[in-house]
Amino acid sequence: MNRKQFRTKLAPTFRYWMEVEVHVxxxxxxxxxxxxxxxxxxxxxxxCKYVLHWNGAEQAIYMALEQMFPDEMGQFLVxxxxxxxxxxxxxxxxxxxxxxxxxxxxxxxxxxALNRVWGVGSNRSYFRNQLLSMALILTCGALALLxxxxxxxxxxxxxxxxxxxxSSVLVGAFFKTxxxxxTIFILFLVYWLLPxxxxxxxxxxxxxxxxxxLLEALKYLSLLLWPWLRTKLQNEYGPFQYSAMIxxxxxxxxxxxxxxxxxxxxxxxxxxxxxxxxxxxxxxxGN
Length: 287
Hints:
Structural class: mainly alpha
Oligomer: single chain
Number of strands: 0
Largest sheet: none
Radius of gyration: 22 Å
Number of helices: 10
Strand content: under 5%
Shape: globular
Order of helices and strands: HHHHHHHHHH
């Protein structure tokens, strides 16, 4: 693919990004991520601590937070997460169900946005959306928990084989790989199941892989820009700087996810249109 073809492929996506409606979807998704983020973490830590009694998986969650959010922000989240879980006490099933209800709110605006991308005229009812959202959040939680559990198991194994210093490097590399795979699979499920229409899995699988890798790149970009961004957010948002950081990161991540859906839908339309071209040419020659 030459440079002109590359620009031609990306131009519709940039035009899609410039639509005001898409920005509304992006910020709505980001706001729901902000509201869902901490309750989801409470559920994961409480499950590891009070149900599974698995300290290694619990520590893997804290490690993930410190890798994703650098410096004081990661320490702040870990410290408050530990305090909140300790204050709540043993695993409370009714309370956890309410937390799940809060955590699945991100799928409401995401379904509306994906339906628009795929040209679906009607959204699911609120009840059906909540059922599907609950199924997705349970699946996402199970996948995240599996990633934490595998990280904990490998941390113990690497510690025995290489010692504590070598273990930290290998465990970090393993966790990043596992996190990328889990992210890609979650994106695949969202692209495939969330729109209110039938979509062939093979149409969205390549997009899920691409967007998953781009989200990993976005994470490292945010870490690179963090020293500058931290100062700016602290000056402008004061005590709300961490909330602003999560909101901004979630917005850009949501825009990547929506761009992937737009590209998959447009690619499907282009693939359907290609076989019609020879027929038109033959018809023109016959005339």
